[in-house]
Specification:
Length: 113
Amino acid sequence: MKRCVVGIRHPEERSRPATGRGQPSIWFPSMSTMAAVLSEDNRALLRLIRDPRTKSLTELAALSGRCVPNLSRSLRMMEGYGLVKLKRDGHGVEPVALATEFLVVLNDPKDKS
């Protein structure tokens, strides 16, 4: 699993390009959003997806002790940020963790303020 660089970018800063090495690949609108998405429970969920390589939401629910609707909501939210891929097939959904290690960038090195 590759390390994912994450950062905070307020909505008014979206027009400013942020590319280059070491720049975040995932942006959160606020520190509180980042804390909620990367909570201890959600990071544990990502590790559960990665380590035993769960094949279904039902299997992941059993491993995590969470109910499927709650789990599904969390995974869809993480999918929106690019942390998880939900592979849909005719019989169900297989979660795939795209990142389990995070480097958090709290300030822009180009910002002089």
